[in-house]
Hints:
Elements: H1 3-27, H2 31-37, H3 49-65, H4 68-85, H5 97-105, E1 110-115, E2 120-125, H6 133-143, E3 153-158, H7 164-167, E4 170-173, H8 195-210, H9 215-228
Parallel strand pairs: 2-3
Antiparallel strand pairs: 1-2, 3-4
Helix pairs in contact: 3-4, 5-6
Amino acid sequence: MNAxxxxxxxRRPSILLPLLALALSACGADPAGREAAAKPAAAGxxxxxxxxxxxxxxxxxxxxAGDQAALQQSVAELDRDLRRAVRxxxxxxxxxxxxxxxxxKSVTGVRSAVWVDDENLLAIxxxxxQRSYGTIDxxxxxxxxxxxxxxxxxxxxxxxxxxGDELEILSRNCxxxxxxxxxxxxxxxxxxxxxxxxxxxxxxxxxxxxxxxRSAEREESERIIQAxxxxx
Length: 232
């Protein structure tokens, strides 16, 4: 056997072992980490002209060849891309609400999930830190195989909230940036306390803290109440 070939074969395990170790480590990675890394589909992006031209040429070839199955598939894919570009929900790919609710509950940190209406899915998470867009991404990624996630708005609320700010609900359409909605999709207010009310409460609290010390007046009021309250 050629000595160079033998040496090359002897080196091969040294190259494969690190790759194998990397693959094994990826398989054993934390599920929460994989969920956080996954990014859902993004709608509202302009269609690539070159790709569209190539697709149209392919469709002409499919029509001339009489390949109806391939042509129908190409038409469906083009229609889907056009709808997503203009943020138009596909009614033919509506997600089953119960299956989506169960899938949302399987995401790490999600305590419960319920549909508020046909578009808004409300999920309660265990900790304040899990009320994040990363958790919304994880839920939306789970729903993608079920249909058109452009028709879903995920709303997150923390089950560990201790004040109005922590109780605030984080909302986002699965395929759009925060604050944007699909065509004809309403901006429903899910929060119990609207942001304006919370802001006013914070302003009132800050003003009270910045004001003069009224502790003596409160103590005097408490003394008068105690003195005038009959013993049981």
